[in-house]
Design goal:
Bound molecules: alpha-D-glucopyranose
Radius of gyration: 23 Å
Strand content: 15-25%
Helix content: 25-40%
Strand order of the largest sheet: 11-10-9-5-2-1-13-12
Number of strands: 20
Oligomer: single chain
Largest sheet: 8 strands, parallel
């Protein structure tokens, strides 16, 4: 059986930074609606909408205080209904971000729970007595630095927060919590959404007292229960954010007969530029052979069981051109190369807003320019541990989440056409060169490469279903692979570096499907490849 999402390309919108419609400097739902025609032109099938629910914005909407209401700055439930309806008109489904590992500390459940030990909502969260010295029950750390336990004066106990202290963790062992979540999911399903992206879903099976956070023992039971209570049998798409997934684990989530999810985001490739066993801020250079190995492993392991998601970017990751491409001399070439390399693999591709026009990182000079709670906490934490300020800022420039969160660059007007007011986060000054208007007017822009890649997927079963085989190359920084289906064969060749090289084309190509150096023609034999060149041949 095949599903719509296996042939789909998903576009992620980070609402705060996409399009402001009322001049308050913050993107909103009406702004997104006004840009649907643009997304239709790009050709995408679904939007993953980062959280739009009521939230005090300690973590930009990933701290939810009411799951069935809309954040004031973003609009109203009527706007949300309109977005879903306007999406439908253009065959664009809306995938909601489901953040249920934790709520905001301003959610009514937590406001109740913290009042007393016998409050009916107490057990919705995870509480523990101080240890004998009055310290937290154990040394579990928060992803956003410091302890994962916060003391609550009112009752003299600690509560668990794997993220900020304004994001208390829900207690999934409590059946009432699980069913409240399922009811809420059904509320959204009834509105006609296309599915869910599940925030840090691998944490819901946690056993904090045994210091197990990801992949807890009950995780898959809960997901199966959720599947049957909500989206099961409804032709919806679900994608779990699962940082620690291996191919074996990804198959548990995504084998259809297990009744869990459509697919997961795994981050193995994304960790390749961090030092082993250190955290994301401790940088090392990317090795292309390592990248080839990781992609090949996932393509092969999930070729007939389970399903892959394909992505370079999201709202937590730096811009891929700045990270692994070249944002100086080869912005467009490397951007196209990265797009071609990813989109012709097997799986469901995701595009993060602005990726399709080649947006790049924002250069931060001082911590005062930073909004992201993760970066700010890390900065303070490392400063206290005597790291050099320059090194901390270097890490933030390379990996900080604000890189992806600067406003979308629409045109040449002030604030890039994002807002008529003061933007909540600085607009990258390079919007004078990099913006949607420019991209649409230039037939050679990245936008049209993305548009074509989406079209290729829609039109060619080989892109959706073909087998993947890595090609051995003389230059280890050339990444080449075959896709094959029913006697058809495509060859993808990419030069993953800023210098020229060559590649031996052993078969006479029937045709060229897509390329990023337009005026070149190709024949069997030695190909001289330009920096970041990418070309796809039909071989059979
Ligand atoms: C996920 C989100 C991230 C958020 C965190 C806590 O990793 O993608 O933005 O901060 O979960 O909800």
């Amino acid at each position: 059986m095949t599903s719509w999402w296996q042939k789909a390309v998903v576009y992620q919108v980070y609402p705060r930074s996409f399009q402001d419609s009322d001049g308050d400097g913050i993107g909103d739902l009406k702004g997104i609606i006004s840009r649907l025609d643009y997304l239709e032109k790009l050709g995408i099938d679904a939007i993953w909408l980062s959280p739009v629910y009521k939230s005090p914005n300690d973590d930009n909407g990933y701290d939810i205080s009411d799951y069935e209401d809309i954040m004031d700055e973003f609009g109203t439930m009527a706007d949300m209904d309109e977005l879903i309806a306007e999406g439908h008109k253009r065959n664009i489904k809306i995938i909601m971000d489901l953040v249920v590992n934790h709520t905001s500390d301003e959610h009514a459940w937590f406001v109740e729970a913290k009042q007393s030990k016998d409050n009916p909502y107490r057990d919705y969260y995870v509480w523990a007595d101080p240890d004998a010295e009055g310290n937290p029950p154990n040394d579990l750390g928060s992803t956003f630095s410091g302890s994962a336990w916060e003391y609550s004066e009112l009752t003299g106990q600690y509560y668990l927060h794997l993220f900020s202290k304004k994001q208390p963790d829900l207690n999934w062992e409590n059946e009432k919590v699980r069913h409240a979540v399922y009811d809420m999911m059904n509320f959204w399903i009834d509105k006609g959404i296309g599915g869910f992206r599940m925030d840090v879903i691998d944490l819901v099976g946690k056993k904090p007292f045994e210091k197990i956070t990801g992949n807890g023992p009950k995780l898959h039971d809960y997901l199966q229960e959720m599947h049957h209570a909500t989206f099961g049998g409804k032709d919806l798409m679900t994608v779990g954010e699962t940082w620690g997934a291996t191919p074996e684990i990804a198959k548990l989530y995504s084998k259809p007969e297990r009744d869990e999810l459509s697919m997961v985001f795994q981050f193995e490739h994304s960790g390749l530029d961090q030092q082993p066993w250190k955290d994301k801020w401790d940088l090392q250079d990317l090795s292309i052979p390592a990248l080839k190995e990781v992609f090949t492993k996932w393509q092969t392991e999930l070729s007939s069981e389970g399903w892959n998601s394909l992505f370079w970017n999201n709202h937590d990751l730096p811009r891929i051109i700045s990270r692994w491409g070249n944002d100086k001399d080869y912005r467009v070439e490397s951007g196209k190369m990265l797009a071609i390399l990813l989109h012709l693999q097997k799986g469901t591709p995701y595009i993060y807003q602005g990726e399709e026009i080649g947006m790049v990182n924002y250069p931060v000079e001082s911590i005062d320019e930073v909004d992201d709670i993760e970066s700010i906490n890390m900065y303070n934490d490392r400063l206290a541990r005597d790291y050099a300020k320059e090194d901390i800022l270097k890490s933030i420039n390379a990996k900080g989440r604000d890189n992806a969160r600067t406003p979308m660059q629409w045109d040449y007007s002030e604030n890039a056409g994002f807002t008529t007011g003061t933007p909540w986060l600085h607009v990258n000054p390079n919007y004078h060169e990099i913006n949607v208007k420019q991209a649409l007017e230039d037939s050679n822009s990245l936008f049209y490469t993305y548009q074509k890649l989406i079209q290729l997927r829609h039109d060619n079963p080989i892109v959706v279903w073909g087998d993947f085989t890595l090609v051995d190359t003389a230059d280890e920084n050339v990444f080449a692979y075959y896709r094959e289906l029913d006697g058809q064969k495509w060859l993808v060749v990419t030069n993953f570096q800023a210098k020229k090289t060559s590649f031996e084309l052993t078969e006479e190509p029937k045709s060229t499907i897509i390329q990023n150096y337009n005026d070149k023609t190709y024949q069997k034999g030695q190909l001289d490849l330009e920096p970041y060149e990418a070309v796809v041949f039909e071989i059979k």
